[in-house]
Specification:
The chain is of the alpha+beta class. The chain has 9 helices and 20 strands.
Length: about 500
């Protein structure tokens, strides 16, 4: 115990000496009251913007196999994790009740068929009686013409003929009724046979049994809804993840984006997927609105099991080999203590850098020059484009000077319409891409420490950002420039 105490005393003494040395070294590098500038170099690197989310792994197609009939489970032919094929028998209900119903329906059909045959025989007899009555009527009519029989005899023959005709009509109606009864009994028999067939439960799809909800001897009741017997996943080689994304981040998500994720069961294995769908139905939990983002992913070796939680990074933007600056440089603003060392970018210098029109002009290396190069504009097209920008921006400045509001979206839409008339089909496609890139960037100010120790203000256009660095998509900055991230004043 004493040895342990002495060891801790030694460790604490070493830590104390190191801390004191660090403090003295810091004081030795800068005098009291001096402002120490911390910088980092702008460098070429990669930037990846991500949205973090999590969701449950599930099979792409999952089918719950139920029973349309009530009865007792007589046989189970599939179990957990069994591979089944579509149409394969996986369970059977006790068929005795349904076999009895089939026999009963067969007897009823036989009765109806016999009744139909009886009615057909009755029709034959009625037709024979009709023929006899018709011949008798014809004889009586001939004899009446010769005056050898009374009128009453002819009337009696006429009545018999009409009765025979009625009997034939009744016989035919009875046949029609018997045929309908037979069809009804046949339908009942077919229904009974279908029910008997349904006592054999078959797999509706090919896949793997992920759940079994019944045992042999258990009674299932299908009076209100079909009881679930099995759950079959179609193909676990491909899975789906339903991720919940906050409403603040859903605007960055688009179909086709790459997703990288891990699961707790395999924390060292990073898997990839693709955003397949963004569902429009919102879900609100604890006053937080989220949307379901469906991600599809391959499942090599079927290591991903249904129900696992996937911790995902949805890559909403990625740039490789671009100029980057640390995020601290975007937050830095000179304090009054640095007034003598700063060189702000004045309006004239800013205008020369950006060109006329507030960033849309044609300064060397500016947006106009870039547009001319990217779109391969002819000299005539460059003059037309410059005229469009000057006209629109002139109206914007006039509106601003008169105290009116400037609708930037309307100005951009007007410029886009005018540009469509100047550019050819291929140039229009590229112009739309440039517009999209412009919408995805923003202007910002950073400070650079120059060789003489002064801090110079630079205007840059920023692209995507991650937790540490931000892309510099344009502006007066080069790789290796010392961007200022922090200024601290050394005190006594």
């Amino acid at each position: 115990m004493h040895e342990l105490k002495r060891w801790w005393v030694v460790v604490l003494a070493v830590v104390a000496v190191g801390a004191a040395g660090w403090w003295l070294l810091g004081r030795g590098n800068a005098a009291a009251g001096e402002v120490v500038i911390e910088t980092d170099a702008a460098a070429i690197g990669d930037v990846r913007r991500i949205v973090a989310a999590s969701g449950a792994v599930r099979a792409l197609v999952t089918v719950e196999v139920g029973s349309q009939l009530s009865g007792q489970i007589a046989e189970l032919l599939a179990d957990y994790n069994d591979i089944v094929e579509a149409g394969q028998v996986i369970a059977r209900l006790d068929p005795q009740t349904y076999e009895t119903r089939v026999r009963e329906a067969e007897a009823s059909r036989a009765t109806a068929a016999a009744s139909l045959e009886l009615q057909r025989a009755s029709l034959v007899r009625a037709q024979a009686a009709l023929r006899e009555a018709r011949r008798e009527h014809e004889r009586m009519a001939a004899l009446r013409e010769r005056g050898t029989v009374a009128q009453s005899a002819l009337d009696t023959a006429q009545t018999a003929l009409e009765a025979a005709e009625a009997d034939v009509a009744v016989a035919r109606a009875q046949i029609t009724n018997a045929q309908a009864v037979l069809a009804q009994r046949e339908a009942t028999l077919e229904g009974a046979r279908i029910d008997l067939e349904r006592t054999t439960i078959r797999a509706p799809i090919s896949g793997v049994v992920v759940d079994r909800a019944v045992d042999v001897g258990q009674t299932v009741a299908a009076s209100l809804s079909a009881p679930v017997l099995f759950t079959i996943a179609q193909d676990l080689g491909q899975v789906q993840i339903d991720a919940q994304v906050d409403e603040a981040d859903i605007g960055q998500i688009a179909r086709g984006q790459t997703v990288r994720f891990t699961v707790d069961a395999h924390p060292d294995t990073e898997l990839t997927g693709v955003v397949e769908q963004i569902r429009l139905a919102p879900e609100t939990l604890n006053n937080v609105v989220t949307y379901t983002v469906v991600v599809s992913a391959a499942n090599p070796g079927q290591r991903l099991l249904p129900g696992m939680t996937a911790n995902m990074d949805i890559v909403t933007g990625e740039r490789t080999g671009v100029l980057t600056v640390p995020n601290g440089a975007l937050r830095f603003r000179p304090s009054p203590a640095l007034d003598g060392r700063t060189r702000p970018l004045d309006a004239a210098d800013d205008g020369a850098r950006r060109g006329p029109g507030g960033g849309q002009g044609g300064g060397a290396g500016g947006p106009m020059a870039r547009m001319a190069a990217e779109l391969d504009l002819t000299e005539r097209q460059q003059e037309q484009v410059r005229g469009i920008f000057m006209s629109v921006m002139g109206r914007a400045r006039a509106a601003s000077q008169s105290g009116g509001d400037i609708d930037r979206a309307a100005l951009q839409a007007e410029i886009a319409r005018e540009m469509e008339t100047v550019l050819d089909a291929e140039q229009r496609v590229r112009y739309r891409e440039l517009q999209r890139e412009m919408r995805e960037t923003r202007m910002a100010t950073i400070w650079v420490e120059e060789t003489d120790g002064r801090l110079a203000e630079r205007r840059v256009r920023l692209g995507i950002s991650d937790s540490q660095t931000t892309e510099v998509a344009g502006g007066d900055l080069a790789a290796g420039d010392a961007v200022v991230t922090r200024a601290r004043e050394v005190r006594e």
